[in-house]
Design brief:
The protein has 52 residues and is α+β, with helices and mostly antiparallel strands. The chain is built from two helices and two strands, in the order αββα. It has a two-stranded antiparallel sheet with strand order 1-2. The chain is flat and about 45 Å long.
Length: 52
């Protein structure tokens, strides 16, 4: 897990929002298991839901 520094709130927020939007790799503690790619926001099909 990534530790965010409270004194640099802007950079911490920027990093967190980039991870939220782009996804990130969750490293497993047990190296025998594969890492997991986490993508919390799915933008596929977004154009279908936008109003003109």
């Amino acid at each position: 897990m990534i530790n965010f520094i409270a004194s640099d709130l802007y950079e911490s927020d920027k990093t967190f929002l980039k991870m939220l939007a782009d996804g990130f790799i969750l490293k497993r503690e047990d190296r025998n298991n594969k890492d997991i790619y986490i993508q919390l926001i799915d933008y596929k099909g977004l154009n279908k839901h936008q109003q003109s």
